Amino acid sequence: MNIRLGRRSFLGATVIGAAASLVACSSGGAETQEQARQLVIGATAPPAALDPSTNSGAAIPQALLYNVYETLVKIDSDGQIVPLLATSWNESEDGLTYTFTLQPKATFASGAALDAEAVKTSLERVKNDDAVLATLKSQLGAMESVTVQDASTVVVKLSQRDNDWLYYAAQTAGIIYDPDGIDSLGTAPAGSGPFVFESWSEGNPMVLTRNESYWGTPTVFDSVTFKYFSDPTAENSAMSSGDLDVISNMQAPQAISQFEDPDQYTILNGTSMGEVVLGFNHQREAFSDVRVRQAINYAINRSDLLQTVTAGYGTLIGSMVAPTDPWYEDLADTYGYDPDTARRLLAEAGYGEGLDLSLRVPSLPYATSAATFITSQLAQVGITVTTDTLEFPSRWIDEVMTKSNYDMTIISHVEGRDIAKWANPEYYWHYDNPEFTQLITEAKTGPADEQTEKMKQAARVLADDAAADFLYSMANLVVLRAGISGISENLTSESMDLTAASSTDI
Amino acid sequence: MGALLRIRDLRIGFGRAEALHGIDLTVGEGARVGIIGESGSGKSVTALATMGLLPDTARVSGSIELGGRQLVGLSDTGFARLRGDVVSMIFQEPMTALDPTMRVGRQVAEVLRLHQGAPAGRARERVIEMLSQVGLPDPERISMSFPHQLSGGQRQRALIAMALINQPELVICDEPTTALDVTVQARVLRLLDEQLDAAGAACLFISHDLAVVSQVCDEVLVMYRGTIVESGPIAQVLENPQHPYTAGLIATARIDQIEPGRPLPVIENFWDGKEGRP
Amino acid sequence: MTDDEPDPGVPVFEARGVSRTFRRSGTRGRVLTTALDGVDLTVRPGQRLGIVGESGSGKSTLIRVLDALLPPSSGEVLFRGRRIDNASSRQLGDLRSSVQMVFQDPRSSLDPRMTVGDIITEPLRSPLLRSRPDVPRNHGERLAEVLEQVELEADAAGHYPHEFSGGERQRIAIARAIAPRPDVLIADEAVSALDVSVRAHVLNLFADLVRSDRLTLIFVSHDLAVVRHVCDHVAVMRSGRIVESGPIEQIYASPAREYTRNLLASVPKLRVRTASSRRTATEVPDEMPPGPDDPPA
Amino acid sequence: MRRSHPLVVGAVLVGLICILAVVSFFWTPHDPGLVDASIALQPPSRTYPLGTDGFGQDIFSRILVGARICMLVGVMAVTIGALLGVPIGILAGMSRRHVGRRIMRWADIFYAFPALLLAILLAAANGTGSTMTAMIAIGISSIPAFARVANTASRSVMSRDFVAAARSSGIGWTAIAWRHVLPNILPVVLVQVSSALGRAILAEAALSYLGVGTQPTTPTWGRMLYDAQKFVYDHPAQIAVPAVFIAITVLGFNLLGDGLREALDPRLRQEA
Amino acid sequence: MRALGAIARQLLSLAGSLLIASFIVFALINALPGDVAATILGPNSDPASIAALRERMGLDRPLLLRYVEWLGGLLTGQPGSSALSGAPIGSIIGPKLAVTAWLATLSMLMGVVLAVPTGLYSAVRRKRADGVIISGLTQVAMAVPHFLVGLVLMIVFAVTLRWLPANGYTPLTSNPLQWLRHLVLPVAAIAVVEAAMLIRYVRSAFIDVLNEDYFRTARAVGWRFVPAVIRHGLRNASLEVITVAGLQLASLFVGSIVVENVFLLPGLGSQLLTAVNQRDLPVVQAIVMIFVAIVLVINTVVDICYHLLDPRVRAQDEETSS
């Protein structure tokens, strides 16, 4: 080859040289001190906005609740309500008045004092401002008035007893916002927590930095970054290549084997508040007959389903109750796997020759896998299922929740204590069981100590009546890089509580 | 004058068919030898073999000697040194023979610099001089323009300039004027005749038209289906062709001798050796 | 032969002041080139008109205008006294049945995907010709007739064009032209692409057909010798204009215009170059008027 | 036509896949949809020639059914592209140069909507991606390629003398299009069909990967590839099987296209 | 220079196509069922508050009015703001466009750098073994989906060997080295497939040259085989490369969605997917319009380059026959 080609091979040499240098200086090896103080967390559904009070995305409280925003009281990792901004509170005999004594040292990140007046503004905003989400309004529905007794005491009066009010006040509904920043919550969250919002925009990570003037015990981390992965495999690869320190909730448990080395990773297999429910549309004629609903429960081998969909991670449940709920009872074997009984019940209900049902699932990994499993299992008892996936969130919400244009669907309900939804016939299941509704209202408005017993009875009614096929409670599968600790195993609230997180490398 | 080009028993085959069945021909220094024949007679294949430009599917045997050098089996590098310097070739279709994306002057200069390594400046002068020598009216403009801006005649003259710029010993022309208009053809033939004299170069001139060959050449070979059926000085071949095919060829070429209205003579009247209809 | 015997008085074709320009939208903007520049021409029935000229002289454009394949930019074209330059394609039934064309390149004038039989009988199936009385009805019979007339075997009908030589393919093209029994045959460089030996056969075929079917012939060629043999009249064209026209012997013997003289002089004649006579130039004058040598049209 | 390697190899590969697709209509070793958690992620064995996937479904049966659906998507998409693209190309090729250029300009607007973009929008419109939306999206986006091929080929046929001959005997434009232009451009269109089929299969795989392609329960190879992704660390074979079948099919179509192009290219034919 | 006339004409028709495409884009996207208001307010929001929000966002006004408004905004540089987060679209899309632009252009560049020499080599040695092997490998490389190549590269180089980061992105401005390290694998994943396609075109362009008369002239004047191919083939092939590379670059902008997904690059592709899922129509419209505009602009630029560079094309315009 003459010189002309020679020049090209020279070009080739430089390219290879550059590549080698690029690789050589990769960090690999031991983390520098400075990097150890930056915590990087992998999560799945990205937030659509920043203001938890006007946008319903679960990703917002996950990152901001307790970390940036604080509430009077909070839910700890065992599901108990413990003091936070309020050092103590007491509930009147008739359960209608709650008196909170505020933490004197508490200040907002902006430096302003967190006094009774600020609490009053935030709580009343939920009641009066129509931009606030309807769910939050109904959670604090019973709240009638908020009065400032003195700078560090607040008295809340309820119109009627509501044993769940304090539970909800401990989460998103009860966030105490910095009054000065209330109008720009959409772009600049202003709270009082150990972290301060640093940056986020659509499609990019959410970055929080340490609140230098935090009133409580400060965090050991300089910053926390939430990276959002739409694809589970990409998230796993990021973890194994050292880009991530924590996977908040592993979507594809099948690939967990790569993190089984205890020196490198710790795996937390806790429970979450998410109940994965095979919901029935009770408006449909077939589902008005309890035998059909029970037949479906008998026809699906839920432990096999758990093995296939989440490689065995998660807890089998029998009703709309998560293991962390105080009134949890293991009702998993209300209906064992018994295809013959299922066929018998179907025949009795008049569907001996067969039943056609549609199963419309959101485009989420667990839902589509479960759909494949359920379609095949129901086929063996004579129920022909036609499955289609609806784009989540918009199309699924539109078709299933707003228009109830479905026979069966699969979704995980992540809000805490969402068993109460079964008492609302307007909700997309359209379930109307007076006995159940009565128990729920009694539990909510009756004496506090009777709440747990009443809720247990309600859960049993749901299970016996086969209101739905309660498949399993999602596992809260957290993967930590060795050395990271202080992150709770169970998911007891909407928040990923990092206030107690720390790392041995720091 | 020793023989410049001596071809002995040249056989060329493609796949199963053999296009040339062993031909012998000699071209003396400065001699002008024409080859006439119809399509498929093997005249172009002979030219391409002498230039070493046959496709690599061709099987060549026999000997081609040019100025004492054996060309059959010569390496591409060896042949490249000869082409454009010792032996050069002019092709039939001027419209596509020049690189459309390169200015004409540069293509001509390439030939010069390739063989004589002349510095750019001197090469430019030599090119302008050569372009005017081949009768192009405005050599500067021509050398700066692209091929598509020139007429067929002008492009063929530029190609002639390229063929002659290195004063080759042998110039092979394969139907150089067939694609040109008759008036342009007349002038190009005359130009070719003069320039070959000026360069003292020998010429192997291939055409299907006997009249055109007679303008440039002294001797002529008649090829038919891969063999030479007759050869000799043009006058002798014209006056009393030995082979009936030659006689037929000459008769059909001279249609101006035939009374309008009377049927034209066809080769079959002279020679029935042709297999199958034309 | 044909029932409405053409009245000898009315000319077959008449072109009055016919011009044709082409608009080119190259990077050098709208460039207008004139292919025909005010041509006047009359073709009488039974006449054998040769049209000669070099490339770019407009001879091919002229016959396309005459055959109404190309509308003229200005001027009038009449076929048997009736204007055809502005007629709609349906009104051209008479022209289409009476006038047929033969083209130059045998490789391009036959559709490689059709059998020879279909190619030859295609004009008979044309909507304009099918219903006309003077066009043969029985295609099979006519096919055999014309194949025999152009000296091709009957079984050629079933084969495809690529199975035939250049000469045979040109015969097929001629068979296609004469199938609908036209009165006028237009040949556009019909023998230029053929070998010399084959050319004679095809020219003889043309001569026989013109005589036997009493056809009017318009023969376009750059080869003056061929035209002289085939035609009785000739028109010499240059840069879109007819430079000279008239009976062929008179034009060839004493051309009035200098361009015609040069044209005739340029035809290479068989001559003997004795060693001494190397310097005798052919009769071509040194200084040729510029023209056919300028950049392509 | 000289024996050309690409044509033979291409035809064999494509033939193989077609056989798989046809067989799947009548027989699959197991029910492709049958889920059995106990036998998930089995290596290839006698009963499960290609092993089982994460749901315990027989991979070989799903590959068979996948072949049928991928071919269906490919063929339907290419039909849409050809049926719309080729006539536009012929129309542009047969009309005058500047009119032709304007028509092609319109066809090129479809270039602006690549298959992926259309699929995302159609999936959103239809509520969910499905084989139908994939077909339409890939089909529409292949229109300009067909139009371009048909345009250049038709324009060169129109320059041939046999078209002038037909015109001079009064044959109408539509007859010329049917009898002369279409048969003569068919070979070139065929070459385009073959490579377009290859591209369609790749596009379907990409769409399924993004979740805007076919339904989760319909076993296309793209879907299988997507589902197998989670097992990429400890069961890499899961991803290899569908990937290999996609590659074989696309390779087959591309080779077929090259082979046809070589066989039909007049220049190469003279060389033979 | 008269050539400007042709370019002006092409730019005019580009503007025309853009306008038509913009209407198609707007109409198509606004026909999408499912509603951003419902997404914002969440699952159990009541129809009344959804309707109120829709009204506040002006989603009920007639399509044509909104189209004109949107077009006006587009032309004056304010494409509006995201329906979900209220952030101005420019700030959302700007950095993302940079990522996709870098990804597409770098992989096309690497593709061309790989394709031209290999195409030349496989053309020159097409009869010999290594030539056949190269074209065989090219065929295989073209038959493998982008994302699979990406996945394999990621597993080998990022996860197992840990040489390069598995995913994520650092803007060029903040850390050029990290920026480069994040782009190496995704660019390689795309470049491998794109180069394969390009090699075929370059190879056929060089082989075409072998059949040209001017190549035979070059050989006849004394050029050896390979220099002759390069000298005359390179220009012809480069024209071919410009056209094909142009078309590929255009489709690459959208094609990179898949690779963005594998390597988690915050490009336009992944942003489009999330925006469509959330029915954030203003963002969807803006991104789709950008993709459409990029494709049309690149096609026009390729046409113009072809016109300027190839004297033959200018000659083609001067063809006389109608």
UniProtKB/TrEMBL annotation, chain A:
Residues 1-24 form the signal peptide. CDD domains: PBP2_NikA_DppA_OppA_like_6. This is Solute-binding protein family 5 domain. InterPro entries: Peptide/Ni-bd (IPR030678), SBP_5 (IPR039424), SBP_5_dom (IPR000914), TAT_signal (IPR006311). The keyword Signal applies. It comes from the Bacteria. Keywords: Signal. One of its GO terms (cellular component) is periplasmic space. One of its GO terms (molecular function) is peptide transmembrane transporter activity. GO terms for biological process: peptide transport. Coiled coil: none annotated. It comes from Propionibacterium ruminifibrarum. Residues 80-413 form the Solute-binding protein family domain.
From TrEMBL, chain B:
The keyword Cell membrane applies. Its EC number is 3.6.1.3. It is a peripheral membrane protein. Signal peptide: none annotated. It is found in: Cell membrane. InterPro entries: AAA+_ATPase (IPR003593), ABC_Ni/Peptide_Import (IPR050388), ABC_transporter-like_ATP-bd (IPR003439), ABC_transporter-like_CS (IPR017871), P-loop_NTPase (IPR027417). The keyword Transferase does not apply. GO terms for cellular component: plasma membrane. SUPFAM superfamilies: P-loop containing nucleoside triphosphate hydrolases. Belongs to the ABC transporter superfamily. This is Adenosinetriphosphatase. It comes from Propionibacterium ruminifibrarum.
UniProtKB/TrEMBL annotation, chain C:
It comes from the Bacteria. InterPro entries: AAA+_ATPase, ABC_transp_ATP-bind, ABC_transporter-like_ATP-bd, ABC_transporter-like_CS, P-loop_NTPase. Its EC number is 3.6.1.3. The keyword Nucleotide-binding applies. CDD domains: ABC_NikE_OppD_transporters (cd03257). The keyword Cell inner membrane does not apply. GO terms for biological process: transmembrane transport. Residues 287-297 have a biased composition (Pro residues). Keywords: ATP-binding, Hydrolase, Nucleotide-binding, Transport. SUPFAM superfamilies: P-loop containing nucleoside triphosphate hydrolases (SSF52540). Residues 273-297 are annotated as: Disordered. Residues 13-264 form the ABC transporter domain. One of its GO terms (molecular function) is ATP hydrolysis activity. Belongs to the ABC transporter superfamily. This is Adenosinetriphosphatase. It comes from Propionibacterium ruminifibrarum. The lineage of its organism: Bacteria, Bacillati, Actinomycetota, Actinomycetes, Propionibacteriales.
Automatic annotation (TrEMBL), chain E:
This is Binding-protein-dependent transport system inner membrane component. PROSITE patterns: ABC_TM1. InterPro entries: BPD_transp_1_N, MetI-like, MetI-like_sf. Its main location: membrane. PANTHER family: DIPEPTIDE TRANSPORT SYSTEM PERMEASE PROTEIN DPPB-RELATED. It comes from Propionibacterium ruminifibrarum. Coiled coil: none annotated. GO terms for molecular function: dipeptide transmembrane transporter activity.
